[in-house]
Design brief:
globular; mainly beta; single chain; Pectate Lyase C-like; 379 residues
Length: 379
């Protein structure tokens, strides 16, 4: 099959670095503020390799109907997809250094047609989710300029505006839609750029036990399973991840949690994004994460506070006061009988996320605005 691929596709060699939309920022020490020492760590979030560190790569051009799974299984190549729909029955397992690139999210679509029931969680093991696009123990791999969507022959996912029926698993009694759209597991220096993830079966995006991942300009909308523990943008036991330019709605939560081995999520940056669900810190060990320049607007039908705390209120929290919020608009809307409220809304203050909710909410002032009006000291 590989020979057939090489025979049909146009093959070229190009010196290729990261995708054009993925930039590698550098620490600007003039922006540092000693009052916030974690800034040194946040500057390291995201992909840190440079264009010069990547070797020349083969560029393979594919069209719908070609063997995409075989193409992405060969390391250190760019798989360039033409316009069209690519219907996938098996997991796409990206090899080291593979960049899967479409023309645009409107023109190039990967349609996931596989099925999977919800697997049982096993202690000290990753949950073996059925997955559409998988980065497993790879480095310098990426997905760019395309849409990943679940089976388009299905009716649309339940509308969360319905209330409880929209926040349940197995819609219509169908229990085989537990398919994660994109999962990064034990991977480093990888990225998603200019990608739409639509109507996922299960979690739209899982980043577990990974580091230095960039998620840039990604739109996430809708998921079929939204019951307890389902339908999350999940940051699990990962460090130094940069999530920027996101648009998120129609899912359950954005969740920062420990991974299956108890490792916490730390030093991650969520910046310059528009979010219509809550951001949840599910384990108390999650520490030194940053939310900056985000609009978090929780609508009336999403029955969670904007910053949601998922741990037992009586549990000690060693990471208290280290997850910070700066220059965000964070609101919770209700029906007409209740008052809309906002939190962390003073641009001259930095807020930390509390270990436990209080009558005043889930945040309180941590200190004044940083001296350079940013906690992400990158140029």
């Amino acid at each position: 099959m590989v020979n057939r691929i090489l025979a049909v596709f146009v093959l070229s060699l190009l010196p290729v670095g990261l995708g054009a939309a993925v930039s590698v920022g550098k620490l600007d020490e003039t922006l540092l503020d000693p009052a916030y020492p974690a800034m040194q760590h946040w500057a390291k979030a995201g992909v840190q390799v440079t264009n010069e560190s990547r070797n020349a790569q083969a560029v393979i051009h594919l069209e719908p109907g070609h063997d995409l799974a075989a193409a992405v299984a060969i390391p250190h190549r760019i798989v360039q997809l033409s316009a069209g729909n690519y219907r996938i029955k098996e997991t796409l397992r990206l090899a080291d250094g593979v960049v899967l690139r479409g023309l645009s999210p409107q023109q190039t679509k990967i349609i996931l047609t596989m099925r999977g029931t919800r697997p049982a969680a096993v202690e000290n093991q990753f949950v073996p989710w059925t997955t559409g696009v998988l980065f497993e123990s790879v480095t310098q791999s990426g997905v760019e300029n395309l849409t990943v969507a679940f089976d388009d022959s299905l009716p649309a996912p339940p509308d969360p505006r319905q209330g409880s029926p929209g926040y349940a698993d197995n819609p219509g009694g169908q229990d085989d839609l537990h398919v994660v759209a994109v999962r990064l597991s034990g991977s480093r220096q990888c990225w998603l750029s200019n990608v739409a993830i639509q109507n996922s079966g299960q979690h739209p995006l899982v980043i577990e036990s990974s580091a230095h991942v960039t998620v840039d300009g990604v739109e996430i909308a809708g998921t079929y399973n939204k019951g307890d523990g389902s339908g999350n943008l999940l940051i699990s036991g990962s460090e130094y991840c940069l999530l920027t330019g996101l648009t998120v709605g129609g899912i359950n939560h954005i969740s920062f949690i420990n991974d299956a081995f108890g490792r916490p999520s730390r030093y991650n940056v969520l910046i310059n994004s528009r979010i219509a669900v809550d951001v949840r810190f599910r384990n108390p060990e999650a520490s030194h994460n940053l939310l900056q320049e985000c609009v978090i607007e929780v609508p009336s039908w999403h029955d969670f506070p904007p910053i949601s705390l998922g741990w037992n209120a009586t549990r000690a929290n060693a990471a208290a006061n280290t997850n910070l919020i700066y220059f965000c608009t964070i609101t919770r809307d209700f029906s007409s009988s209740r008052t809309r409220f906002s939190i962390a809304d003073n641009p001259n203050k930095v807020y930390h996320i509390l270990a436990n909710s209080t009558l005043k909410g889930n945040v309180e002032v941590a200190g004044p605005a940083p001296k350079a009006s940013t906690l992400w000291p990158v140029r």
